[in-house]
# Entry
Amino acid sequence: MKQTWLWLGISLAVVVLALWGGLVLLPHWLQQTADPDPASYRQPYLSTDEQSFTTVYYTTGDKRYLLPLTIPINNTREVAKIALEKLLAGPPDEFSSSVIPEGTKLRDVYMVGDTIFVDLTKDFLEVGEEEAQAAVDCIVQTVLPVTSRYLLQIMVEGQVCPELAGTDISLPLDDTPFNILNPQEAPKGKDICLVTAYFCDEYAMYLVPVSIAMPRDLLMAAEDPELFLARETIELLLLGPDEDSGLFATFYPGAQLLSLEIKESVAYVNLSAEALDYGGGAAFEQLFVKSLVYSLTDLTGINAVQILIEGEIEQYLPEGMDVSTPIFPYDKINEPFQRAGGYN
# Structure
């Protein structure tokens, strides 16, 4: 009899523990299996520090390439929101353009987990098929570089759309390459690496980053992969863009790379004397130097560039640019042309 009561007591305790455990675990199970409303988890995205300028990606005048412009803003931590509003407001000068449909407004921008949600008005759906991918890329490149390790989900009127004029926007997007000059050699999923150079736009006003895709096997086979990419980058600058690209070289024809070294994160670029044969023009000199610095410091492991001519460090270039010490990348790329009345 005592054994019977003992077994009944043990059984009752097991049942009670099972019920208690189920009540404790039930909310977690529901959280994992239910489809929670993102609005209940959303948070505003704020940068770590206040910023007084941001890079917005418009397009070149012919709308063929994404064009980064540094736009002044009031000190704020809402950099992503302000940058988007600047993008949607349209280009700041006549030397840049936009593929975002006129009238598109920002309804909201917020963060859920590791994803930034950008909610636009229905005007965004009016984009043409030929400009849809560029419109998506402009939004992605404007927002994600001011965040860290985030994805971006585009929404329209609070809803996720399966596609935008044939471009898939159903899933969160990452910071993918853009302005690839040979896209046929860079299909999705192919193991490639990119060589990026900054060329001059059609108005000789701005620098445009463009990339060439090459098999990653070439990089892996190189004795010094870092030096290999740096050399390929300079050779691309020296070669210049194709005639039908709508872009222009920043290096004077005939310039050659004599030698290249990378020491303590500084690239020592030794050019032939022909590199200075532009014979004047402060604007060209600025584009020449900045294109080299931006192109090389985009590479991992290079923080600055020291220019040499025929093996010697020059104090100044013909138009007065000081190149006597290593040049670090400039914080502001492509500041918009400022009219007498100021920026738009």
Summary: The two ends are 92 Å apart (CA to CA).
